[in-house]
């Protein structure tokens, strides 16, 4: 099948394989005395990855070089149950020696439009640039059952091509505002990994992977680095319709 598809038996095995990639990249950067700039997504899927990182990988990854950013954030305070930062803090940050100066939170509690502008400035200041755009070393993405990724939803594909680096998305059913990296910023990354598990993703993932006539409805279908690279780390359940 496709060389960028990596299928594993379980969500644990899938997340463990992603953790191995993070370890490999962190070691490479550590040898060069360089940081590893990673943007992470929220939702439920990353929780198992974060737990694996805080247990199996807590001693092997040079955490002092990890600089952590977010792909998106719900417009709620960090203590709110919906907060991606809150989830990441509980499952990852509070267990690891990542210094506060290396954690770049999206402020979900302030005016969304103002935060999008502020976070864009953070990216411009804190990241190296490529083609004039801030460039992450690695972006970890999930995909919703509806094919959204980051907080770019099927009813607002314009965020894929927005001239902004960071913008405001709106969840189509709840109306919840979200701060989100735009498609351009995501696609600038050196490497993009989708971590997708579960049967509920299988139908849309099949449409995307097989470029079925409907695939262009889904934001996740438009995600790839400028060199065309995107790696899918998925479990058998998510791959069950291939
Ligand atoms: C978010 C995420 C979002 C997520 C997908 C998948 O803020 O919700 O960034 O893009 O990756 O919705 O979510 P699950 O992992 O919960 O299925």
SSE inventory with pairings:
Layout (H helix, E strand, L loop, with lengths): L4 E4 L2 H21 L4 E5 L5 H10 L10 E5 L1 E3 L9 H8 L11 E2 L7 H15 L2 E2 L2 E2 L3 E4 L16 H4 L4 E5 L6 E5 L1 H5 L3 E6 L5 H8 L21 E5 L7
Parallel strand pairs: 1-12, 2-3, 2-8, 3-5, 8-11, 11-12
Antiparallel strand pairs: 4-10, 6-7, 9-10
Helix pairs in contact: 1-2
The structure holds 6-phosphogluconic acid.
6-phosphogluconic acid binds next to loops.
Quick gist of this model?
Helix content is 29%, strand content 20%. It is an alpha/beta fold and 242 residues long.
Question: What would your notes on this structure say?
Answer:
This protein is α/β, with parallel strands linked by helices and 242 residues long. The protein has one domain (5-235): Rossmann fold (3-Layer(aba) Sandwich), CATH 3.40.50. 29% of the residues lie in helices and 20% in strands. The chain is globular. The mean pLDDT is 97. The structure holds 6-phosphogluconic acid (6PG). 6-phosphogluconic acid binds at residues 41-45, 71-72, 84, 142-144, 148-151.
> How are the strands ordered across the major sheet?
1-12-11-8-2-3-5
The backbone outline, from C-alpha atoms, is: globular
The arrangement of helices and strands along the chain is: EHEHEEHEHEEEHEEHEHE
Helix fraction by DSSP (H/I, runs of at least 4): 25-40%
Heterogens: 6-phosphogluconic acid
Gyration radius (Cα, Å) is 17 Å
How much β-strand is present in the residues? 15-25%
The poorly predicted ranges are: none
Mean pLDDT across every amino acid position: 97
Distance between the termini: 10 Å
CATH fold-type name? Rossmann fold
Q: Pairing-aware structural class of the strands and helices?
A: alpha/beta
Counted beta strands: 12
Name of the top-level CATH class: Alpha Beta
CATH architectural group = 3-Layer(aba) Sandwich
DSSP helical segment count: 7
Indicate how many domains the architecture comprises: 1
């Amino acid at each position: 099948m496709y060389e960028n598809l990596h299928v594993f038996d379980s969500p644990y095995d899938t997340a463990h394989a992603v953790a191995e990639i993070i370890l490999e990249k962190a070691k490479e950067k550590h040898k060069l005395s360089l940081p590893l700039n990673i943007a992470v997504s929220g939702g439920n899927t990353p929780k198992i990855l974060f737990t694996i990182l805080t247990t199996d990988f807590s001693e092997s990854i040079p955490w002092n070089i990890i600089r952590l950013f977010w792909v998106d954030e719900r417009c709620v305070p960090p203590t709110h149950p919906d907060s991606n930062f809150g989830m990441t803090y509980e499952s990852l940050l509070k267990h690891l020696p990542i210094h506060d100066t290396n954690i770049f939170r999206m402020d979900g509690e302030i005016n969304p439009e103002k935060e999008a502008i502020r976070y864009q400035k953070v990216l411009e200041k804190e990241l190296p640039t490529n083609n004039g755009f801030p460039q992450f070393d690695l972006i970890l993405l999930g995909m919703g059952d509806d094919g959204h990724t980051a907080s770019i939803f099927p009813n607002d594909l314009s965020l894929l091509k927005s001239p902004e680096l960071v913008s405001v998305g709106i969840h189509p059913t709840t109306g919840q505002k979200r701060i989100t990296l735009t498609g351009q910023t995501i696609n600038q990354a050196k490497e993009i990994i989708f971590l997708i598990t579960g049967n509920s993703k299988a139908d849309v993932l099949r449409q995307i992977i097989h470029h079925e006539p409907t695939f262009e409805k889904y934001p996740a279908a438009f995600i790839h680095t400028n060199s065309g690279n995107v790696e899918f780390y998925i479990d058998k359940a998510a791959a069950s319709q291939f």
